[in-house]
Amino acid sequence: MASSHDRCRTLTLHLQGGLGYSPLRSGLTFVPGALAFAFVSLNWRRVPASAHHVLIVSGFALSGAGLAATGLLLRDGGTGGAWTYVLAGVVGGGMASGFSPLMTRVLSRVPVAIAADASGVIVTVNQLAIVGGVATFGTLYLNLAGHLHASVLASAHAWEASSLALAVVAIAGGVLAAIHVSSSQE
Asked: What per-residue string of b and e applies to 32-60 under the rule 16 or more CB within 10 Å gives b?
C-alpha cells in the first residue's frame, strides 16, 4: 500500500511542482491507474483459484516494473506523453492484482472468532505503511528536489529516485508474498 499511495503523492509533487500541471490535469493523470485498479479489484475472482498465487506475485512485480518505467520515462523532465497514462494503468492494475487476492487469502485463514481483530490489525498495518511511506518517500522526493517548485530537472530527478525506491518496495512486497504463498501451500 505504501508504494501505491506514495506514488500518487510524489508524482503529484513532480507534476504540479516540476512540470507546472494544474491540480485538475495532475489528478487526471491518475485516472487510468484508478480505472485499472477498480477493474482488476472487481474481476480478479474470475481467475481460477489455483492461479491466485501467480496473480499475487505477478501483480507486485508488474506494479514495481510500472513504477520503475515511469521514473525512467520522466527522468529527463518531459511529460512522457501517452506512456505516462499507460504506465499509470499498469501500476494500478498490478497493485490491485497483488493486493486484493493477498488480503483475501490472509483473512480467509483467520478463525471466525478473531476475524474482527485480524481485520483491525490489517487496517492498522496498512495505514501505518501509508504514513511511513509518505514520510519516507515524501522526504526523499523533497530532499532531492530542493523545494516544492524546483526546476523541472531537479523535480524529474527526485521523481526518478522516488519511483525507483517505490519499485523496490513493490518488488519486495512481491518477494514476501511469494514466500507467504509458498509456505502456505506446503
From this structure: bbeebbeebbeebeeeeeeebbebbbbbb
DSSP category for residue 151:
-
Return the residue matching grid coordinates 511469494.
178
φ/ψ of residue 149, rounded to 5: -110, 60
Q: How far apart are CA 34 and CA 47, in angstroms?
A: 20
d(CA 179, CA 172): 11
138-181 confidence digits (pLDDT tens): 889 889 998 767 789 999 999 999 999 999 999 998 899 888 87
pTM comes to: 0.89
Q: How many structural domains is the chain composed of?
A: 1
Single out the residue of 137, 129, 98 nearest to residue 6, CA to CA. 137
Q: How far apart are CA 186 and CA 164, in angstroms?
A: 33
Q: What is the pLDDT confidence band of residue 16, given thresholds at 50, 70 and 90? A: very high
What the block records as the C-alpha cell of 46 is 474470475
**How many C-beta neighbours within 10 Å does residue 126 have?**
15
* 81 burial type by CB count under 10 A (0-12 exposed, 13-18 middle, 19+ buried): exposed
Task: Read off the CATH number of the domain in which 19 is found.
Answer: 1.20.1250
